[in-house]
Write a sequence for this structure.
């Protein structure tokens, strides 16, 4: 029987302890289990040096030997095992200049970002919590380990991580920690775009991403966060939609809301999304929804609505419609109309027509050109709206007539 990730992690702990090396679950996995959540992955901290870890386990990957990290592969799971260490000299505000292996668990926990991530647990379930992370979990507070400014000067991204954790967990950021974020925001220009994007993507997966956007805005971080620090607007004012976004759930929509918050012109949407280093599909999907959100009229005819659904796809149009209602305060009745029109469509794709481009070309003596696509699109719309039947002979006859109107 396949073991769970937790069972494998316990096996790794037992193996290390049996060999004489204290070892503990640490970080997010301990935090999440205390919150009754299933951890995404399991990390272990141990007194054993990387070379010894690799001796003790059959399948390992030297993930980061210089920093003491080895990944143990067991029963289909990957467990990161890192030697107790201290860190010094963060000259780039991201990585330590020096890493020193130590024998003290508390010293290792002291280098971590937040108290809720600085709790360790051994294979018997005994917890070690020198910075009172369990109390902060109970109080639903995000607090740095030690002096907040020092933690943020070591790794500037921790400021965004604090906001992301508060957003994901529905916690509040402790007063001194929040003040330190506001004071050290200028350091964020040193952070790689990819790291910023990853934090925002995690935020989009939370129950209330607007809380995170609100915090970043209130703390003035858009002026410093790359690549947004070079964009047209900086989100200095909190828009009305931040308190009325219950219907928004798609990451594409949240990216679009970010573009709106930062006052990105519609014609620049794809360019700005590319600067965030997201993949091409995300760029396209976000730009489409953003463009749709600002192009819906307050009143729209059934035929035009159905044409939009056919042209851009059901998901894009429905999500764009939700955005339009939130951003432009259009009537909420617009969304049910699109849902109804979607359900009424007889067909939704050219492949469902009883003819294709080859059929039309076989009876219309014209070289390929825009006329062919235009004719098929119009036939699709008319069938979808139940204006004509989806029958081969009828479609061919109507196709010949329509083709004459297109150049």
């Amino acid at each position: 029987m396949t073991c769970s990730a937790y069972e494998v992690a316990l096996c790794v702990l037992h193996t290390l302890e049996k060999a004489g090396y204290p070892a503990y679950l640490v970080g997010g996995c301990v935090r999440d289990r205390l919150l009754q959540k299933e951890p995404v992955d399991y990390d272990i901290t141990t007194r054993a040096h990387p070379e010894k870890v690799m001796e003790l386990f059959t399948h390992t990957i030297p993930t980061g030997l210089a920093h003491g990290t080895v990944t143990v592969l067991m029963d289909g799971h990957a467990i990161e095992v890192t030697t107790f260490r201290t860190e010094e000299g963060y000259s780039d505000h991201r990585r330590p200049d020096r890493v020193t292996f130590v024998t003290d668990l508390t010293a290792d926990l002291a280098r971590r970002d937040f108290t809720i991530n600085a709790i360790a647990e051994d294979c018997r379930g005994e917890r070690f919590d020198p910075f009172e992370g369990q109390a902060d979990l109970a109080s639903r507070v995000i607090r740095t380990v030690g002096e907040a400014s020092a933690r943020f000067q070591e790794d500037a991204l921790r400021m965004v991580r604090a906001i992301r954790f508060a957003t994901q967990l529905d916690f509040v950021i402790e007063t001194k920690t929040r003040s330190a974020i506001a004071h050290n925001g200028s350091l964020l220009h040193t952070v790689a775009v990819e790291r910023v994007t990853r934090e925002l993507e995690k935020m989009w997966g939370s129950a209330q991403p607007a809380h995170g956007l609100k915090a970043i805005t209130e703390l003035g971080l858009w002026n410093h966060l790359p690549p947004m620090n070079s964009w047209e607007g900086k989100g200095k004012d909190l828009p009305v939609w931040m308190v009325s976004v219950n219907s928004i759930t798609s990451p594409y929509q949240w990216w679009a809301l970010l573009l709106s918050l930062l006052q990105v012109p519609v014609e620049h949407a794809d360019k700005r999304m590319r600067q965030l280093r997201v993949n091409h599909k995300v760029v396209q999907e976000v730009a489409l929804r953003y463009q749709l959100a600002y192009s819906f009229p307050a009143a729209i005819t059934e035929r035009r609505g159905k044409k939009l659904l056919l042209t851009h796809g059901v998901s894009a149009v429905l999500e764009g419609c939700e955005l339009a209602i939130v951003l432009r305060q259009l009537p909420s009745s617009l969304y049910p109309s699109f849902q109804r029109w979607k359900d009424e469509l007889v067909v939704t794709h050219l492949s469902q027509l009883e003819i294709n481009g080859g059929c039309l070309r076989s009876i219309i003596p014209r070289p390929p050109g825009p006329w062919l696509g235009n004719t098929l699109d119009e036939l699709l719309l008319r069938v979808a709206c139940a204006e004509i039947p989806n029958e081969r002979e009828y479609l061919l006859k109507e196709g010949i007539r329509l083709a004459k109107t297109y150049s």
Q: What stands out?
A: The chain has a mean pLDDT of 94. The radius of gyration is 28 Å. The CA atoms of residues 96 and 169 lie 28 Å apart. The chain has 19 helices and eleven strands.
